[in-house]
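Give me the fold.
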Amino acid sequence: LPNRWNEFRKKYNIVEENYKINRDGYILYTLSNAIGWFGQHKEKNWIQNIDKNLKKIRQKTKRKIVIRLHPNNISYNANIEKKCPGFKKFINNLKKKYEINNTQPLGEIKNDIYAAFVVNGSICVELTCYGIPIFCIDKSFDKFICSKIAIKNLDLINNLQLEHLDNSKKTQFLEWVCSNCFFRTEIKNGALFKKIYEILSKKFNNI
């Protein structure tokens, strides 16, 4: 669906900011859901992968790193430990090395961030709207939605330049994301199902 980004911006009063580089800012490392589909199926070694990636980043830069937990993992419970053994101990160890910030919305800390590391998910869209450079160093990078916008060359982390970032590409990414989204009213009034029917009809008519 074309021109959806503008519709979403107007409806939800979203401001798309140009890329900026805060030389005095910190690196925000965002964690995926340890007990969600990604953590349980894609990242079967969730703890080891995070530890490995943080070590890779630290080898490239001495910049401060702040950790942001997935919203579903903020409140610890037995179910998390059951599905991700060692979770509590791992997070406690992270707290000894890094600051963990889940109390402030991204909108409040956006001007404090130099760059962010993401795996996948909606957070990469929000960070992109704020004009924050995002990196992804996961081995399955090419399969993620963030692959259309994230930087995968870790060598750039220590000296980001605006020439490494493309505002037009950022807008194209947001347009692409929104082209695959529907408003709740469109779901309720059947517009989503009509579109699905239209796509499937074309597909099967061409077989």
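The mean pLDDT is 88.
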